[in-house]
């Protein structure tokens, strides 16, 4: 049952990312030759006080970083970041998001890099 629930969450997350990809406001979503993807995860198990994780993306190790998810990403899940330039290195940072109103966010962790690979979808 838990695996089925996680599959549903991942499908919803993919739909959310696909819908936000229609926005022309993000430098990382749209444009020509943007057929690269980066796979991230699986993310660490969440502590009881953590609602999930926020992810930030930049083309430079020092930023500026842009948030790429609308809702916190759950622990043990993975996600694909689409609409990137294949072959280009991207830098990511992650924060933990707590429960509460408004939710509190931790300081970002160290930046880590991934190279976008060609997507044929």
Would you give an account of this structure?
- This protein has 121 residues and is of the alpha+beta class.
- It has a single domain (2-118), classed as Immunoglobulin-like (Sandwich), CATH 2.60.40.10.
- Helix content is 16%, strand content 31%.
- The protein is built from 1 helix and 7 strands; from the N terminus they run H-E-E-E-E-E-E-E.
- Strand 2 (50-58) and strand 3 form a beta hairpin.
- Mean pLDDT is 79; it is low at 1-25.
Structure summary, number of beta strands = 7
In spatial order, strands of the major sheet run: 3-2-5-6
How much helix, percentage-wise, in residues?
A: 10-25%
Query: What would the principal axes of the Cα set say about the shape?
Result: globular
How many domain modules? 1
**Main CATH class:** Mainly Beta
End-to-end distance: 29 Å
CATH architecture: Sandwich
Q: Please tally the helical runs, counting DSSP H or I stretches of 4 or more residues.
A: 1
Order of helices and strands: HEEEEEEE
Question: Largest sheet at a glance?
Answer: 4 strands, antiparallel
Radius of gyration from CA coordinates:
14 Å
Could you write a compact summary of the structure shown?
The protein has 121 residues and is an alpha+beta fold. The protein has a single domain (2-118), classed as Immunoglobulins (Immunoglobulin-like). 16% of the residues lie in helices and 31% in strands.
